[in-house]
Amino acid sequence: MINHVYDPLVDAARTNSPHGQKLLEQLGEKLLNANPGCCHSVEDGMRLARTNLSLYANFFPPPVVDQVRVYYGLAGFP
């Protein structure tokens, strides 16, 4: 279930796609709409998406984890 949400973000990082940040923003907006008590802005939703993406990426091989962390600026995320 989570794969169809976060795999496109991982794929964007792996291919250095110019669309990754837009995908992250769209996901942040979806998370805001789905969790209004938790997220108060698109930025909050994007922060939640980055945290989830950072955790999800750990299931991939280390080089992919590194690509995702660099591409989305995830230093400091779990």
Weakly predicted, low-confidence segments: none
Count the strands? 0
Structural class: mainly alpha
Beta content? under 5%
Q: Helical segment tally? A: 4
What is the quaternary state of this protein?
single chain
Q: H/E element string? A: HHHH
Helix share, percent: over 70%
Give Rg in angstroms. 12 Å
Instruction: Name the shape in a single word.
Output: globular
Mean pLDDT: 93
Largest sheet, in brief, is: none
Determine the N-to-C terminus distance: 21 Å
Structure commentary:
The chain has helices at residues 3-15, 20-34, 42-57, 62-72. Helix 1 packs antiparallel against helix 2 (20-34). The protein is an all-alpha fold and 78 residues long.
Can you lay out the helices and strands and say which pair or pack?
Layout: H1 3-15, H2 20-34, H3 42-57, H4 62-72
Helix pairs in contact: 1-2, 1-4, 2-3, 3-4
Quick recap:
It contains four helices and no strands. With 78 residues, it is an all-alpha fold.
Name the descriptors.
4 helices; mainly alpha; about 80 residues
